[in-house]
Amino acid sequence: MADPATDLGSSDSLEGQIEQWRSYLRRRRAIRAVDVEELEDHLRGEVTALRTAGLSENEALLVAVKRMGALDAISNEFAREHSERLWKQLVIGSTGSDQPVDSARTETIVVFALATVAALAVKVPELFGLKWGTADMPFYLRNFSLFVFPLLTGYFVWKRRLSGRTWAWLALAFAAAVVFANVYPFEPGSDTEMLTALHLPIALWLPVGIAYAGGRWSESTGRMDFVRFSGELFIYYALIALGGGVLVGFTMGMFQAIGINAEPVVRDWLVPCGMLGAVIVASWLVEAKQSVIENMAPVLTRLFTPLFALTLLVFLGTMVWTGRGIDIERNALIAFDLLLVLVLGLLLYSISARDPEAPPAGFDLLLVLLLVSALVADAFALAAIGARISELGFTPNRVAALGENLVLLGNLGWSTVLYVRFLRGHGPFASLERWQTAYLPTYSVWAAIVVVGFPPVFGFG
To answer: Does residue 10 carry a pLDDT above 60?
Structure first.
């Protein structure tokens, strides 16, 4: 989070500087317009008092803003004092004067309409003879993200009121994805088809992010907000999935008690429709409550970072002790890459929750240890993949794994350098945040290369 007091120094008039400070506050969803006005009155009072004491306008404003405290602290304070708003927003809409009840109700209707469309979209292919849960599943796997991501993007386009030009570019990206997922003549059960199913969601997460950022994608703070959103969405979706699992269990048990087999309905309707509709609902929940619940991911990060660091150290120690190499079969590589992605996720959410102005602490050393461990593990994986390619030649899975590990290696390597510089006092923490947010499109670009280029290069096999 940028420090408004730092940026205010470059503004011209006092009113212009206060407007800039006010715009920072408005980005925090726990703070409503009426709260901003209250804080602004307090700020202006501080400025007047400091001006009376002899400070210039710029000096008085900078000191007053510093005295107000960090935005996260202000946001958290409001969230604690007015937590009932957040629950009301979910069921009856905002009661504040800044967001009319009709507007909140409209958004609720739009969200549930989009969730319904997403849920039913997965049934449309059945009209053309493609049935869920049969030999047609590869089609559903390739297109799974296309059933819901365009609708999620549409929600953010509507909510952020993006321009028609941006909307057109995003629609073009999804149209291209539809073509590449369905036009290629994949061999049944081929590696390139499975790689397309795995990589297309990663590639399409970029247009979702651009829509979410709402015109701030070029800013590091805009991309970092999307990182926070992605983490919270993952947590909400997992919670909804757990609740859905309980619902499925009760549904089947109850109908079984009266001699009716509910499995076909659960398998063909409840599970696929629920999986897609839940993405829209979870996204809306994150949007509605992000100012408070966005702290959930950093808390989990604090909990799991030591555990992942210990796991990687034990893994590396075991490799060295036993002399065993990394198995580069597809499933093993996917699991290993997911582990490295989780490490990056832990790093990202730690960065998003950290005060960039705070001095280095013990947790920073732990993160560097985690980064170095992941870097060494990734180097071992790359060596194993390179050896297997040298011995047996190129395959889609090996080349995809090679590229993904190189992409991860680049991020992990430079992140380690920047973090060590920060610990040694040779660089600001903000440079690490900028590096991470600037690197985000790289994952989607590589995924797009796999989706578009790999099938024809490897003969669709």
So the answer is: no
Distances (CA, A) of 146 to 151, 153, 385: 9, 11, 31
DSSP per residue, 244-276 = HHHHHHHHHHHHHHTT---HHHIIIIIHHHHHH
Q: Which residues contact 192 (CB under 8 A, 6 or more apart)?
A: 184, 186, 396, 454, 455, 458, 460, 461
Separation of alpha carbons 52 and 34, rounded Å: 27
Q: Cβ–Cβ contacts within 10 Å for residue 241, how many?
A: 14
Burial of residue 437 (CB within 10 Å: 0-12, 13-18, 19+) is buried
Q: pTM of this prediction?
A: 0.75
As a whole number of angstroms, the distance between CA 25 and CA 22 comes to 5
The neighbour count for residue 233, using CB atoms within 10 Å, is 21
Average pLDDT over residues 313-319: 84
User: Are the CB atoms for 407 and 442 separated by under 8 Å?
Assistant: yes
Under a CB-based contact definition with an 8 Å cutoff, are residues 210 and 161 in contact? no
Q: Convert the pLDDT of each residue in 343-392 to its tens digit.
A: 888 888 788 777 777 788 888 898 899 889 888 888 888 888 888 788 88
**Residue carrying structure tokens 């979706």:** 237
Per-residue tokens: 406: 């190189």
Over residues 118-141, the pLDDT tens digits come to 999 999 999 988 888 888 899 999
Contacts of 325 (CB under 8 A, 6+ apart): 319, 380, 384
Q: How far apart are CA 428 and CA 357, in angstroms?
A: 8
Model confidence pLDDT, tens digit, residues 49-100: 777 777 777 777 777 776 665 555 555 555 455 444 444 444 444 444 445 5
Alpha carbon distance 387, 383 (integer Å): 6
Q: Are 70 and 355 in contact (CB under 8 A)?
A: yes
Question: Which tokens go with 380?
Answer: 């071992």
Closest alpha carbon to 195 in 153, 245, 141, 242: 141
Tell which phi-psi region holds residue 13, choosing left (phi > 0), alpha (psi between -120 and 50) or beta.
beta
Q: Which string of b and e fits 143-163 if b means at least 16 CB within 10 Å?
A: bbbbbbbbbbbbbbbebeebe
The C-alpha R_g of the chain, in whole angstroms, comes to: 25
Q: State the maximum Cα–Cα separation within the chain, in Å, rounded to a whole number.
A: 84
Name which residue leads in pLDDT, 233 or 350: 233
- What is d(CA 383, CA 349) in angstroms, rounded to the nearest whole number? 29
